[in-house]
Amino acid sequence: MSVPERRHPVTRPVPLSVAAVLTGVFALVVVALGIGSSVQSHGQFSIGVGIMLLLYGALLGWIAFTTWRQRFYIRGALVGSALLDLAVAVSSLSSNVALWSVVAALNAVIVVCAVLPSTGLALKRARGDRDDDLPEV
User: Fold this and answer.
1) What are residue 4's phi and psi, to 5 degrees?
2) Are residues 113 and 16 in contact, defined by beta-carbon separation less than 8 angstroms?
């Protein structure tokens, strides 16, 4: 009987960790907004908005968790969700609420962290792709 070969854990670069944690924070905020919208007594519209926010928060949570677990297929969803949130924040800047500037900046950080070469390399290594020709980071 042969013993299966143990794979060495892939180190998680700081930018990947930052992107995963920030996405997780946004997931919690969106879920809280969804709950708040659902419990308001404004009829079916509030419940519908709340359900959609809860679903989007769950999606963001899955993206954050999967990013933290370094699944090779998650980079596109991570960038896409951060760009969507960034677009919402930028379009809301005209309301002169300082919070939207913070949301925009944090989503820009997520996008930058997600597209850095170290993130791509970590996700490629987590997949198990051959990386003999790639330099160590």
Assistant:
1) -65, 145
2) yes
Q: Is 10:72 a contact under the CB 8 Å cutoff?
A: no
Q: How far is CA 24 from CA 2, 6, 16, 95, 97, in A?
A: 40, 30, 12, 25, 23
Return left, alpha or beta for 5; rule: phi > 0 is left, psi -120 to 50 is alpha, else beta.
beta
What is the C-alpha separation between 72 and 124, in angstroms, rounded? Answer: 6
Instruction: Show the CA angle centred on residue 11, arms to residues 10 and 12, nearest 5°.
Output: 115
pLDDT of residue 12: 87
| Measured distance CA(103)–CA(91) in Å, rounded | 11
Structure tokens at 122: 């970590």
Residues 110 and 22 sit within 8 Å (Cβ to Cβ) = yes
DSSP 116: S
Tokens describing residue 37 = 């919208």
Structure tokens at 77: 């969803």
Residue 40 DSSP label: S
pLDDT at 15: 95
Those residues of the chain that have pLDDT short of 50 are: 132
**CA separation for the pair 3, 41 (Å, rounded):** 60
